[in-house]
Specification:
Blueprint lengths: L9 E4 L7 H7 L4 E5 L2 H14 L4 E5 L2 H4 L3 H12 L4 E7 L10 H11 L1 E12 L9 H13 L7 H9 L8 E11 L4 H11 L10 H16 L5 E12 L2
Parallel strand pairs: 1-2, 1-4, 2-3, 4-5
Antiparallel strand pairs: 5-7, 6-7
Length: 244
């Protein structure tokens, strides 16, 4: 494949405070748009890009479940809200947790048809639901979700892969997936616990009461923090290449 003869642009949906935005900015010189519903997270990034004078990075506050609910709405969002040409890369990293699994194909189709450039790629990442080793983040989530809420994660990115492969809107697309393991450790208990709460989808997923939160913290101290055990997460990655 020949390298592009033009600068590329990227859209990160559900970007949060996007610690990788500087790498993305260096690669996508035609513009990087960070899109998220959390204004506070975007404010953190705004202070950074202003300090570093990164003129090619733009921020957009929005709810993807509304702004990309169908191809027509997604096209209007691109034109009027984001105000950019279609993007060469669209990422959705750890953001599909916040909507119903049944709605995933609709959002992906809308973005694929109306937001992605004629020759571009979408990249999705989520915690693997098929991991069952004790002590992994999937196990950790399912352990407490089952204990306190009689629930477990059903956010299976590989099922989405199979759905897209059989969907007529993605005919001719190159759709692939892979799974990798990542480890997280930091010598700061508050920062360590912030990642634990993020994994447990606190507070937007389950509403743990005080006693439940205390039990979780004590469990993490005993089984992870004191033995200096890193969080181990299996992550599924889904890539959808749109043919030019």
């Amino acid at each position: 494949m020949s390298p592009p003869d033009r600068d590329l642009a990227a859209l990160s949906i559900g970007s949060g405070d996007e610690p990788q935005y500087r790498l993305l900015d260096a690669t996508f010189r035609d513009g990087l748009c960070l899109y998220d519903i959390d204004e506070q997270a975007l404010a953190v990034v705004r202070s950074r890009i202003e300090r570093q004078m990164l003129e090619s990075v733009s921020l957009c506050t929005g709810d993807y479940t509304r702004d990309f609910c169908d191809p027509q709405t997604a096209a209007k969002t691109l034109q009027h809200k984001i105000a950019h040409d279609p993007f060469d890369l669209v990422t959705l990293h750890h953001c599909l947790y916040y909507c119903d699994v049944a709605d995933w194909p609709g959002y992906i189709e809308a973005i694929y048809r109306s937001v992605l450039a004629p020759s571009g790629a979408m990249h999705l990442a989520m915690m693997s639901t098929r991991e069952n080793r004790k002590g992994t983040t999937t196990w950790l989530y399912n352990h407490f979700a089952a204990k306190f809420f009689d629930a477990k994660t059903d956010n299976d990115l590989l099922i989405l892969r199979d759905t897209l492969i059989g969907h007529p809107s993605f005919k001719g697309a190159d759709i692939s997936s892979e799974t990798h393991e990542v480890h997280f450790w930091v010598d700061n208990f508050e920062r360590y616990m912030s990642v634990v709460w993020m994994i447990l989808l606190y507070p937007d997923g389950h509403r743990y009461d005080i006693d439940q939160r205390v039990e979780i913290i004590e469990f993490i101290i005993e089984h992870f923090w004191r033995p200096q055990r890193p969080l181990v997460q299996s992550q599924d990655y889904l890539t959808v290449f749109k043919p030019g």
